[in-house]
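Hi support team,

I submitted a single chain yesterday and got back a structure, but I'm not sure I'm reading the token output correctly. Could someone confirm the output below corresponds to the sequence I sent? I've pasted both exactly as they appear in my results page.

Thanks,
R.
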Amino acid sequence: MRDDLSTHTDLTDDELVRFAQVGDESALTELMLRYSPRIWKVIIANSRQRRDAEEILMDVWRSVWENISGLRNVESFGGWLHRIAYNACKRYYASRHHSKGEILCNDAYLTDQIDRDAVARFRETELREAVAEAVHHLPDKVRRVAELYYLELWSIKEIHAELGLAIGTIKTKLRQTRELLRKEFDVEPEGVRIMSSKPKESKRIPTKIKVIGVGGAGGNAVKRMVEAGLTDIEFYVVNTDQKALDKCTDATPVQIGVNTTQGLGCGANPEIGKKAAEEDRDTLHKIVADADLVFVTAGMGGGTGTGAAPLIASLAREQGALTVGIVTCPFKFEGERRAERAEQGLQELRENADSVLVMPNQRLLDTIKRPMKIPEAFGLSDEMLLRGVESISEFHSSTMHSNT
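Hi R., thanks for writing in. Yes, this is the structure output for that exact sequence:
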């Protein structure tokens, strides 16, 4: 048994699961801290009142402790936990003690119920049950994905791991599901995917766009975009080098890998950039949250941009945003080694983004007939990244608005 709680905070989720499987209570405690906010959404969506949800949450973790030793694939822990939470809610209300005919037995309980607006609560529950019934009767081709996503609140990544379907296929099935549910209920998923009535006439919600510049080249590109006056966009710069972040005063700075790099950069090593991003995965997840469209812009071939951009793209795509990588590849004068690193980083980014737009710096330079100094060449590269973001964001916004 390991008693040093502080050591567990540095472990990955998979490592914690393995320790918990051999009886390490401290590892389970750390898993509870990390995962309780996620499964709380599942529980609260399938509970009739908060007091029930709190009891169910403890039942879930008791069940995890009793059964985790039998979990064969530690990487499936997230999906397994979601299933336990969903089933725990169903078991809780299936028992006689928690049936719908339960008598309210004390004043505090009665007051709690009155404060919750019983009529609104009943209507919400009634609608949720109707939608759950509709999901169970969807066509076979979309039903399983819809059940996991809407009823059990699995993430797209967890569904991908469970069913072995491509991310794009899952998104297509969810889009088809929404269309079918609209026809039957005229409802839209809101919040934590609880279905609620959609007004026939609603104000058009603007597309939420975020641009994340990763590494030195990404930061320079964001600075250029801000200076160009792009509007209705949230700008972030992510870097391991604090000095580089200090130069980007008009975007939200996000330093990663303080423990990995001590704030001094990656030394053009993508592996260090990747470790730095993993170190601050939770912070990166927060900056991509709630976006409709995320641009990850970077220069391939260096350390931070090449190593961290793929992870940031994967986090954005996991939470449902259309994720576009807009990157540059090195000039010839930057050397073959940098070009090789760029190719490897580009491949990883393509695996984690919905689409990647590549700006080959050398090809851009070859189109210019006059001699050009190095700073001017990099400035032209930044300009092309700007144009890419500008054109795609305008196209996406116009397309979304035309469909509303």
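A quick pointer for reading it: The mean pLDDT is 75. Let us know if anything else looks off.

Best,
Support desk
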